[in-house]
């Protein structure tokens, strides 16, 4: 799963809609749901599924369309001013002020940081809460905040008593903060 797609999901949808149109996008969403049992959001995070749905609509032209979509998302809709790479283990330089603030606020919170340190591999929220020293209610609230802010990403599903429970992992494995007179930039390593 590419972190880049998670962070710019809405921007990706906007770009896809502008290139393909609402009717074609609705058809793609139907195909994804009926054939792959997934949503557009997860298909965008795993571009292979999205590409397969495009192939059903456009055949060989789908490769060109997918490249056009990726280029336009990177050029126009990305919150990253510089993209070094977008895969797990790679590094991103983030200069967008709002995104920098969100990330620093999350990692600046002692409780959030303590919870994030529990995630050394994909983990159920209940397992992280059990390992945490925080009260259960506070831990749930903090974890929901991390998911909402993009500090934790879904990475698999575990079936517990017949129910599908999402597993999560941290978005970043390392963060380096750089300050200059003009701005603040983060150099982050994708987990």
Describe the structure.
It is a single chain. The chain is of the alpha+beta class and 191 residues long. The protein is 57% helix and 20% strand. A hairpin with a 2-residue loop joins strand 3 (152-160) and strand 4. Mean pLDDT is 79; it is low at 1-5 and 80-85.
Summary of the model, kept short:
The chain is of the alpha+beta class and 191 residues long. It has two domains: 3-77, no CATH class; 91-190, Winged helix-like DNA-binding domain superfamily/Winged helix DNA-binding domain (Arc Repressor Mutant, subunit A, Orthogonal Bundle), CATH 1.10.10.10. The protein has helices at 3-7, 9-20, 22-36, 40-45, 47-58, 61-77, 97-108, 110-118, 125-131, 136-149, and strands spanning 91-94, 123-124, 152-160, 163-170, 172-179, 184-190.
> Which range best describes the helical content: under 10%, 10-25%, 25-40%, 40-55%, 55-70% or over 70%?
55-70%
End-to-end Cα distance: 11 Å
Q: What about the largest sheet?
A: 3 strands, antiparallel
User: What is the tally of helical segments?
Assistant: 10
Oligomer: single chain
Number of strands: 6
Q: Identify low-pLDDT runs.
A: 1-5, 80-85
- Just give the CATH class of the largest domain: Mainly Alpha
Task: Please state the second-level CATH architecture of the largest domain.
Answer: Orthogonal Bundle
Gyration radius from CA atoms, angstroms: 18 Å
Q: Order of strands across the biggest sheet?
A: 1-6-5
CATH homologous group name of the largest domain: Winged helix-like DNA-binding domain superfamily/Winged helix DNA-binding domain
- Beta content: 15-25%
* Mean pLDDT across residues: 79
The coarse silhouette is: flat
CATH topology label of the largest domain: Arc Repressor Mutant, subunit A
* Number of separate domains: 2
SSE string: HHHHHHEHHEHHEEEE
Structural class: alpha+beta
